[in-house]
């Protein structure tokens, strides 16, 4: 599994574009926001936490179809399915690789982009923390969506349609943590639920993803 | 008749679809008559012969289409979940096809519930739409239906499509319930205590109760009727596909 | 016969129109699909049966 993880990471970094694309997209979303809502810094600071979460979520969505599609096309997914490690482990590893190349960098640049949107002072820590806790769930759910649509020729748009409703709970609680943190309110409950969602999806969804991959490979 | 059903011939590949077609063909006219009668009586009673509510005026009459459609919208997904599980566990083809047949009905009912709710909300709450948890969860339910139907439409192999959509339906159910509770939490976080939602128990007094019950029964009958019609269509379509494929092979 | 709907008449009527309209569309679409697949299936099956009986006829004729 570690070898597979290393291979996926190397491919993501070397294949060029895939790695930095999500970050660039995140930056563009944040840049475009003031053009859409106006440069009033008071308005921006109110919506900053939500926009950053939404931007991170959409950037995450961009690279989902790469999780499995390339391996499916060149046949290495079938090799992985017959490999000694269980397919559930493969699905989990793919999700981890996706998070390390997408979720983690997004989390790290989010505070910097928060400055652009005039995020209130107290919000930086909680924004980063909520993204760090929440984005793994986005990667795992996204891997499930990718597994469902891997056999399709033009699955990209369908993938978004399937995955976005599944993102609702994560987005609600994640953005709630960031928003409450920015406003200095108590945030124990949403933080705990967000962590719960992430842990539950990591524990359970790889099984569903593996089942979907098996169906698609048959 | 019974001999023809129990003896597998080449007419239908599977014993089960044949039995389903026979039974549903027998039931169809009765369900249709029952549905038409119940729905007609319920709606006419509700529309013409119930008094206006002292608070809501005549808009209370919208309840006779709003509540039944909302109930069907939710329970349709439940039915799809059950049929998906039956398909994954027992491998009854009719079950998977029934789930496929149900999705557009559920989506339509969700739209009806949303639209009638908006029309009701406009004079009552002064707004077409509010991000109330109940409204929002219906919008999200609609998105789930869309994704489910899109996946059915996108996958070419019918068996693969049935399995993938079943998996999506099961995972989606978990996330739909999760979203429902997330939305309750989210809304409370936004405006504490201020609830736009009408208290249904308080609203429904005896005068409205019986016609509403009839309307709900009528909608359920309509749902069953459509499921039967659409599932029969799907079974025939599968049979047609199989025949055409065999023709090409020969 | 029309009940007095008061100032909300437009709202109530619109709600009923939308609901009944969508239900009617759903029903019509379902019925049309049903009819279409039924006739298509019947055609294919009849042609198969015709072919099968033709083959049978030729087989017995040769025998």
From TrEMBL, chain A:
The keyword Transmembrane helix applies. Keywords: Cell inner membrane, Cell membrane, Cytochrome c-type biogenesis, Membrane, Transmembrane, Transmembrane helix, Transport. The keyword Iron does not apply. InterPro entries: Cyt_c_biogenesis_CcmB, Cyt_c_CcmB_bac. One of its GO terms (molecular function) is heme transmembrane transporter activity. Its main location: membrane. One of its GO terms (biological process) is cytochrome c biosynthetic process. It is a multi-pass membrane protein. GO terms for cellular component: plasma membrane. It is found in: Cell inner membrane. The chain crosses the membrane at residues 12-36, 42-64, 96-117, 123-150, 157-178, 190-213. Required for the export of heme to the periplasm for the biogenesis of c-type cytochromes. This is Heme exporter protein B. It comes from Aliiruegeria haliotis.
Automatic annotation (TrEMBL), chain B:
Its main location: membrane. Residues 12-191 form the Cytochrome c assembly protein domain. It is found in: Cell inner membrane; Membrane. GO terms for molecular function: heme binding; heme transmembrane transporter activity. InterPro entries: Cyt_c_assembly (IPR002541), Cyt_c_biogenesis_CcmC (IPR003557), Cyt_c_biogenesis_CcsA/CcmC (IPR045062). It comes from the Bacteria. The chain crosses the membrane at residues 20-48, 68-89, 101-123, 135-155, 167-187, 207-229. It is a multi-pass membrane protein. One of its GO terms (cellular component) is plasma membrane. One of its GO terms (biological process) is cytochrome complex assembly. Keywords: Cell inner membrane, Cell membrane, Cytochrome c-type biogenesis, Membrane, Transmembrane, Transmembrane helix, Transport. The keyword Transmembrane helix applies. The keyword Aminoacyl-tRNA synthetase does not apply. Required for the export of heme to the periplasm for the biogenesis of c-type cytochromes. Belongs to the CcmC/CycZ/HelC family. This is Heme exporter protein C. The lineage of its organism: Bacteria, Pseudomonadati, Pseudomonadota, Alphaproteobacteria, Rhodobacterales.
From TrEMBL, chain C:
The chain crosses the membrane at residues 12-31. Pfam families: CcmD (PF04995). It comes from the Bacteria. One of its GO terms (biological process) is cytochrome complex assembly. The keyword Acyltransferase does not apply. Residues 50-63 have a biased composition (Polar residues). Residues 42-63 are annotated as: Disordered. One of its GO terms (cellular component) is plasma membrane. Keywords: Cell inner membrane, Cell membrane, Cytochrome c-type biogenesis, Membrane, Transmembrane, Transmembrane helix, Transport. It is found in: Cell inner membrane. Belongs to the CcmD/CycX/HelD family. Required for the export of heme to the periplasm for the biogenesis of c-type cytochromes. This is Heme exporter protein D.
């Amino acid at each position: 599994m570690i070898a597979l993880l290393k291979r996926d990471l190397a491919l993501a970094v070397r294949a060029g574009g895939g790695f930095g694309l999500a970050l660039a997209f995140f930056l563009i979303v944040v840049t475009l926001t003031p053009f859409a809502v106006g440069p009033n810094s008071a308005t921006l600071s109110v919506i900053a936490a939500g926009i950053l979460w939404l931007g991170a979520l959409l950037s995450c969505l961009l690279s989902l179809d790469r999780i499995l599609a390339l391996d499916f096309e060149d046949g290495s997914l079938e090799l992985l399915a017959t490999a000694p490690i269980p397919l559930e482990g493969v699905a989990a590893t793919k999700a981890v690789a996706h998070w390390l190349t997408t979720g983690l960098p997004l989390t790290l640049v989010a505070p910097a982009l928060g400055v652009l949107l005039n995020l209130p002072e107290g919000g930086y820590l909680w924004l980063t923390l909520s993204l760090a806790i929440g984005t793994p769930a986005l990667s795992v759910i996204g891997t499930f969506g990718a597994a469902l649509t891997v056999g399709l020729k033009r699955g990209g748009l369908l993938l978004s349609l399937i995955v976005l409703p599944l993102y609702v709970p994560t987005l609600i609680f994640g953005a709630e943590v960031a928003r409450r943190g920015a406003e200095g309110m108590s945030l124990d409950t949403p933080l705990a639920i967000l962590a719960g969602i992430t842990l539950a999806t990591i524990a359970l969804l790889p099984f569903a993803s593996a089942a979907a991959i098996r169906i698609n490979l048959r | 008749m019974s001999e023809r059903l129990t003896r597998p011939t080449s007419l239908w590949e599977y014993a089960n679809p044949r039995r389903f077609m026979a039974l549903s063909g027998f039931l169809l006219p009765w369900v249709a008559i029952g549905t038409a009668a119940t729905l007609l009586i319920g709606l006419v009673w509700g529309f013409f012969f119930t008094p206006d509510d002292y608070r809501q005026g005549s808009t209370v009459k919208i309840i006779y289409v709003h509540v039944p459609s909302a109930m069907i919208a939710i329970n349709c997904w439940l039915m799809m979940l059950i049929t998906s599980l039956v398909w994954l566990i027992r491998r009854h083809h009719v079950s998977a096809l029934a789930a496929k047949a149900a999705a557009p009905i559920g989506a339509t009912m969700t739209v009806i519930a949303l639209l009638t709710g908006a029309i009701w909300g406009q004079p009552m709450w002064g707004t077409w739409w509010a991000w109330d948890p109940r409204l929002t969860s219906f919008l999200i339910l609609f998105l789930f239906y869309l994704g489910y139907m899109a996946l059915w439409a996108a996958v070419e192999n019918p068996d693969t499509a049935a399995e993938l959509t079943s998996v999506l339906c099961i995972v989606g159910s978990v996330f739909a319930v999760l979203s429902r509770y997330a939305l309750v939490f989210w809304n409370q976080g936004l405006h504490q205590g201020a609830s736009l939602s009408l208290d249904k128990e308080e609203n429904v007094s005896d005068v409205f109760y019986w016609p509403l019950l009839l309307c709900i029964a009528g909608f359920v009958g309509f749902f069953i009727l459509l499921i039967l019609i659409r599932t029969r269509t799907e079974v025939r379509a599968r049979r047609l596909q199989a025949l055409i494929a065999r023709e090409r092979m020969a | 016969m029309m009940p007095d709907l008061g100032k909300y008449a437009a709202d109530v009527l619109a709600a009923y129109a939308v609901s009944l309209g969508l239900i009617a569309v759903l029903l019509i679409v379902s019925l049309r699909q049903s009819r279409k697949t039924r006739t298509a299936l019947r055609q294919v099956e009849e042609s198969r049966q015709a072919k099968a009986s033709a083959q049978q006829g030729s087989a017995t004729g040769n025998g």
